[in-house]
Amino acid sequence: MSITYTFKTDQLTKENIQQLFLSVEWESASHPHDLYNAILNSHSAATAWDGDRLIGLANALSDGSMAVYFHYVLTDPDYQGQGVGKEIMKMMLEKYQHMHTKVLVSYPKAAGFYKSLGFQSEESSIPMYVFSD
């Protein structure tokens, strides 16, 4: 297995992005066109590949100066526990090291992973959402 990592998005397609999101059973996969546009319109996206198979992805939304928000961070379950997600996040944290604020919202089961990368929970804030169909 030879995994490659890149910030280039030229290999991304609706199909390979959707397949990755389906592999982790995320609802976003049911909107492949919007999901594809969301990734391509991000400030940046780091990806991991096993040959031509997309196995990991993280995207960043940023003002380019003060803050960055890491929205999607996911690794195909076949590759979890092999350092793929950690490598992708190291790429992102290095790219945005100059930012004053780096934010993400974690599911409880993934919080330990993000803590190992230096993220901390913020006791004085609550993540809030407005969902639409």
Automatic annotation (TrEMBL):
The answer to whether UniProt assigns keyword DNA-binding to this entry is no
Supply the Pfam families for this chain. Acetyltransf_10
Source superkingdom:
Bacteria
Q: Which UniProt keywords apply?
A: Acyltransferase, Transferase
Entries under PANTHER family matching the protein: ACYL-COA N-ACYLTRANSFERASE (PTHR43626), GCN5-RELATED N-ACETYLTRANSFERASE 2, CHLOROPLASTIC (PTHR43626:SF4)
Signal peptide start and end residues: none
- Report the protein name in the record: GNAT family N-acetyltransferase
Matching SUPFAM superfamilies, A to Z? Acyl-CoA N-acyltransferases (Nat)
Q: Which PROSITE patterns match?
A: GNAT
Listed InterPro entries: Acyl_CoA_acyltransferase, GNAT_dom, NSI-like
Carries keyword Acyltransferase? yes
Q: Which residues are in the N-acetyltransferase domain? A: 7-133
